[in-house]
UniProtKB/TrEMBL annotation:
<comment type="pathway">
    <text>Cofactor biosynthesis; (R)-pantothenate biosynthesis; (R)-pantoate from 3-methyl-2-oxobutanoate: step 2/2.</text>
</comment>
<dbReference type="InterPro" id="IPR013328">
    <property type="entry name" value="6PGD_dom2"/>
</dbReference>
<keyword id="KW-0560">Oxidoreductase</keyword>
<keyword id="KW-0566">Pantothenate biosynthesis</keyword>
<dbReference type="InterPro" id="IPR008927">
    <property type="entry name" value="6-PGluconate_DH-like_C_sf"/>
</dbReference>
<dbReference type="Pfam" id="PF02558">
    <property type="entry name" value="ApbA"/>
</dbReference>
<dbReference type="GO" id="GO:0005737">
    <property type="term" value="C:cytoplasm"/>
</dbReference>
<comment type="similarity">
    <text>Belongs to the ketopantoate reductase family.</text>
</comment>
<comment type="function">
    <text>Catalyzes the NADPH-dependent reduction of ketopantoate into pantoic acid.</text>
</comment>
<feature type="domain" description="Ketopantoate reductase N-terminal">
    <location>
        <begin position="3"/>
        <end position="142"/>
    </location>
</feature>
<dbReference type="InterPro" id="IPR013752">
    <property type="entry name" value="KPA_reductase"/>
</dbReference>
<dbReference type="Pfam" id="PF08546">
    <property type="entry name" value="ApbA_C"/>
</dbReference>
<keyword id="KW-0521">NADP</keyword>
<feature type="domain" description="Ketopantoate reductase C-terminal">
    <location>
        <begin position="179"/>
        <end position="298"/>
    </location>
</feature>
<dbReference type="GO" id="GO:0015940">
    <property type="term" value="P:pantothenate biosynthetic process"/>
</dbReference>
<dbReference type="GO" id="GO:0008677">
    <property type="term" value="F:2-dehydropantoate 2-reductase activity"/>
</dbReference>
<dbReference type="InterPro" id="IPR003710">
    <property type="entry name" value="ApbA"/>
</dbReference>
Amino acid sequence: MKIMILGAGGVGGYLGARFLRAVEPDVTLVARGAHLDKIRQEGLTILEDTERYTVHPAHATDDPEGLGLFDLILVTLKDTDLDDGLERIRNNVGPQTVILPLLNGVEYRPRILKRYPQADVLEGCIYILSNIVEPGVIRKKGKIFRLCWGKEGFDPADYRPIVELFDRALPRHKPTAEIAYEQWKKFLFISPMAVLTSIYKVPMDRIAQEHADELRELTEEIAALAQAKGVPLTRQDVEATLEQAAKVLPGAKTSMQLDIERNKPAEIEALAGYVVREGDRLGVKVPTMEKLYRALRLRTSE
């Protein structure tokens, strides 16, 4: 199988390394900058628990244009980089190409299909703590790993080569036709946490301690929005999310918080603006998110 990782950072690079380690040699890593240079020179090194290993992709590049069509493209970019990333693969997508986006937001399939209607575009979400610690080196933290993937009407039997690849290479994955529910369940946690940690400039563990009311309001607003869109998030999902928020590791920050601290483009539109716009479109009131979204926009425009 010919595989591309579009965005071989902390998440994508780890996935690519797992595929390579599972004796799937035709893996291309699309990266940039010093990270790409190091991969080209010395390979990609993974630090996982007490283990350290290095893999060497078939190709490491910032421009896959001349590499032909791919069977599977995993999109592991930030939302802010998605349009540019999709432009880069214009010569790599054919009717047999499966595209699996694993971004922080929701509903990427329509956006990608608009660009590549000939492709088989799925939806996905991933739970993982993994980041670049230095160019060419990725650390995966702890045991957290779960990849959910599929689409409405999805039958895993139609994707047997991918199922078998994921079975061999990944700690845990779930092919499902209920992917919208899985995506929104993750979004129910990461959206409020990203917004509140970025607004208050504190790590995640302090949000449940110091801003519990706003955390509950945001989760309830997002659950109401999901329900209006036909996604069956329940009161139990809200309570489970709040319990999860109370158990996060001390000192951990969200990626959006870190991006704002580092003056990098942040996923404000995907994780906050989307909720406000969809709430307005569907008549779902999201006053807490609207207030905090405006504050974030103001802060990042200064």
